[in-house]
UniProtKB/TrEMBL annotation:
This is DNA polymerase Y-family little finger domain-containing protein. Residues 27-105 form the DNA polymerase Y-family little finger domain. One of its GO terms (molecular function) is damaged DNA binding. Coiled coil: none annotated. Transmembrane segments: none annotated. It comes from Spirosoma telluris. One of its GO terms (biological process) is DNA repair.
Length: 109
């Protein structure tokens, strides 16, 4: 019998092997991935998409009753288009205070 099988047998006999977690631990990061169906080189379009995704992250933060201390933005070209020049960069910004307020977060993106 495998170790997992032995654990199941023990649990069926009333000997719990893993502590039961009443509530899941809060997430330490929240991620949204904006993807465009076609190449985008218009800065305004990218900024609008970024703001939309920051707003979604703020909603997720409020749902889990959490707040952000840091905003990190990644920008990458399509890695599957090997015939095109590639770009990958990120920028992290520490927030002056933890927040989940929609009006505050987009100003840091």
């Amino acid at each position: 019998m495998t170790i997992e099988g032995l654990r199941v047998v023990d649990e069926l006999r009333g000997n719990p092997r893993r502590p039961v977690q009443q509530y899941p631990a809060p997430k330490k990061s929240i991620l949204t991935l904006p993807c465009f169906g076609q190449p985008v080189d218009d800065l305004k379009t990218m900024q609008e998409a970024l703001t939309t995704h920051v707003v979604r992250c703020a909603e997720k933060l409020r749902r889990q009753q959490s707040a952000a201390c840091l905003v990190t933005v990644y920008l990458q070209t399509n890695p599957f288009r090997t015939d095109q020049p590639q770009y990958l960069n990120s920028q992290a910004t520490a927030l002056p205070h933890p927040t989940n307020a929609t009006p505050e977060l987009p100003q840091y993106d």
